[in-house]
Design goal:
Blueprint (H helix, E strand, L loop, with lengths): L1 E5 L7 E13 L2 E2 L11 E5 L5 E7 L3 E2 L2 H9 L4 E11 L7 E6 L5 E5 L5 E4 L2 E2 L10 E6 L6 E5 L12 E6 L8 E5 L4 E14 L2 E2 L10 E2 L4 E3 L8 E8 L8 E10 L2 E8 L4 E6 L7
Parallel strand pairs: 2-5, 10-13, 16-20
Antiparallel strand pairs: 1-2, 2-3, 4-5, 6-14, 7-8, 7-12, 8-9, 10-11, 12-13, 14-15, 14-18, 15-16, 16-17, 18-20, 19-20, 21-22, 22-23
């Protein structure tokens, strides 16, 4: 027999049995158990005593909450520049400084490299050296300090502008149009993630199961334009976790979220309703 673990929004996880008579439906059509994947959103009907599911309905995808989207788009975006490496300077006792010329504006910017900076040469972790001179790169940096966050030598192909925004909708299965990005200007763009798509978080390759709604999409995300009206294919999906955002309001409910965690419902000063998870690592001050 097969088992399915489902995480309800406000209750502990539930394990149900998938039997030969269990109907598994996606958009009204029968699909096999093997089509289910981690992060699928489902509705399950099951017997309380037997724990056997009679029906599993698979939703098309989870979508980023409108309130969360507003908060995320209001946070400050990291600086990003795609262009040519003009110079690499090294001073005694200091880490290197790298100067780039932006392809669009033709302006130059000098970035400070720190021990936390991630440098990717042809997709592999590396260090800054003079072999990068005259190379086309994408650099992501802190606008205030000009500290380099991530540098990627596999820059865009010149035909596709950098994509910056947050994950708006995500389907774990390899289906056309299985991922949408809410861009900084509020546009929702659709893409296809395939088995060949490289997913990186903070410069390090991760499993597709680590993609989360609201993840920040970095400017060194790369796409391949598809033919006809098909959605562009993601070659590299470069992510970082969303920044912390303040919430001002009143706690209007607290429920048990299981595994030692609690879920707090907050009504903000703007009358939006937000659920947050409070666990052992949450600081209450």
């Amino acid at each position: 027999r097969k088992q399915l673990t489902v995480q309800p929004a406000r209750f502990p996880p539930v394990q149900v049995i998938i039997g030969s008579d269990t109907a598994i439906k996606f958009q009204g059509r029968d699909i096999p158990f093997g089509r289910l994947d981690v992060a699928n959103r489902v509705q399950v009907r099951y017997g309380l005593e037997s724990r056997t599911a009679s029906r599993v309905s698979v939703s098309a995808a989870a979508t980023l909450d409108k309130t969360a989207a507003k908060v995320l788009l209001a946070t400050r975006d990291p600086g990003a520049v795609t262009g040519t490496v003009l110079d690499i300077e090294r001073f005694p006792g200091e880490l290197p400084h790298i100067t780039l010329r932006d392809d669009d504006s033709q302006d130059t910017v000098t970035l400070n490299i720190s021990t936390e900076s991630v440098v990717l040469i042809d997709g592999a972790p590396s260090t800054v050296n003079r072999d990068l001179l005259d190379t086309e790169v994408t650099a992501i940096f802190h606008p205030d300090s000009l500290e380099l966050i991530e540098l990627d030598s596999q820059a865009s192909d010149g035909y596709n502008k950098p994509i910056r925004g947050v994950i708006h909708r995500f389907v774990a299965k390899n289906l056309p149009g299985n991922l949408t990005i809410l861009t900084r200007d509020g546009t929702i763009r659709t893409f296809s993630r395939t088995t060949d798509t490289v997913v990186r978080r903070n410069g390090r390759q991760v499993s597709v199961n680590e993609v989360r709604l609201g993840d920040v999409v970095r400017a060194n995300t790369r796409i391949v334009n598809a033919s006809g009206d098909a959605a562009p294919v993601l070659e590299v999906l470069s992510l970082s976790s969303p920044p912390l955002a303040p919430i001002h309001g009143t706690i209007t409910g607290i429920t048990n979220a299981g595994q030692g965690s609690m879920r707090a419902t907050i009504t903000t000063n703007k009358l939006d309703i937000i659920d947050i998870l409070v666990d052992a690592d949450t600081q209450v001050v």
